[in-house]
Amino acid sequence: xxxxxxxxxxxxxxxxxxxxxxxxxxxxxxxLPLIFVLLYGSNQINALASKSAESIVDVAWITDKDRALYQxxxxxxxxxxxxxxxxxxxxxxxxxxxxxxxLQLLFxxxxxxxxxxxxxxxEQLTQHLxxxxxxxxxxxxxxxxxxxxxxxxINQLQQEISQLNAELIDNKVTQVQETATNTQGTLLNxxxxxxxxxxxxxxxxxxxxxPLEALSLQIxxxxxxxxxxxxxxSGAQEVLxxxxxxxxxxxxxxxxxxxxxxxxRHISHELKTPLAAIREGTELLYDNSVGELxxxxxxVTNIIRSNVSRLQMLIEDLLDFNIVxxxxxxxxxxxxxxxxxYQECLEQRKLDCQAKKLIxxxxxxxxxxxxxxxxxxxxxxxxxxNAIKYSxxxxxxxxxxxxxxxxxxxxxxxxxxxxxxxxxxxxxxAFYQGPAPDNSAIKSSGLGLTIVKELVRxxxxxxxxxxxxxxxxxxxxxxxxxxxx
Length: 485
Prior knowledge:
Layout: H1 5-15, H2 19-86, H3 89-112, H4 116-137, H5 144-190, H6 193-223, H7 237-286, H8 295-325, E1 334-337, H9 338-348, H10 350-355, E2 359-364, E3 368-371, H11 373-390, E4 396-404, E5 407-413, H12 421-424, H13 448-458, E6 462-467, E7 474-481
Parallel strand pairs: 2-4
Antiparallel strand pairs: 1-3, 4-5, 5-7, 6-7
Helix pairs in contact: 2-3, 2-5, 2-6, 3-4, 4-5, 6-7, 7-8, 8-13, 9-11, 11-13
């Protein structure tokens, strides 16, 4: 897949930005739209609150003026009736004052409420009251029946005005409801910004986290000893710095590993050549092939023979340890049948088994796994070596194979003395030597189980020691993936 100039330019820009800057941009992209929604929503709610408060004030004013108009007309009609009966000047003066107050009230209603029909009714009521006041100041006075007819018309106008006021109140309530509905709809529409904020946050999180996850995977490969694969890195400035440092460390580790591997191979080869000659000569002396040896000479020869065997074992362990250090062999994976590898290791230990009259059995499932043949062979060889070494005469060594989903579990059991709980935490340490088995003159190097544990880890498996409480012996539980990642 080829990168376009635009992709390269985008990656270059991203590489020139620090994690702090990316974090700030990501937070801004996620938070600023939310702040906008919050401020906009707050403004809309404030507008709704102001509209509601204004409507409440208007409704209260209309209600108060309508009640005052009703009460003033009743009071004016009562005063008018008193004047027609008593015809006293004080009553007439009081009537005129009440009429003027009523006219002022009508003026306020007409001036405050911009409603054409309402203004017409107010104007008609004003004219009726003005005409009525003129009639009362002229002579002769009108009859009670005439005044009642006038007040019937006045009351009818008052009722019509009250009806119009009620409609105005309903309109105010409707306006508030419509405003609330519009505000709710607007706020719901602005919430669409929130998913975009979340998407922006997710994008910037991915931009920041993805390079770090890639580096984490490559650090995991370094931990497994895979030094042959170059570390590829991209991202923010800090990620580039870490990636560059890791790549330099990988190169240095690879060089060191190659030097160690080369040194171990060289020194092992140089030691094995003279050792073979010493061993051959020692065997000739020990077998009296070059003449009879006295008892003291025979004892010295036996000491030399034992130490030569131990030295040979150490060299073989060094060669096995070199397999652990050799990361180039990690990539050499193939499909392997477990029992065939185990039987090859048994064949190489056939003489040792026959010397102790040991019985070896294999039970369970036939299983194919994808792994490294050389490393699995070293694991089995070391485990078998310990099992044979600690098994009693005519004992039994059993390998049981069980498959569990994507893993295979192998249980290698012997009938030896087992390992105490105190020593179980130490046996995998390098150069640790536990109690030697009975009748064993040769000590181990203390590297066998250390090599096994490291190889199992590199094969992405696990190893566990199980002491059987009711049965004499030790069971080694070895778990490996059917297919290595």
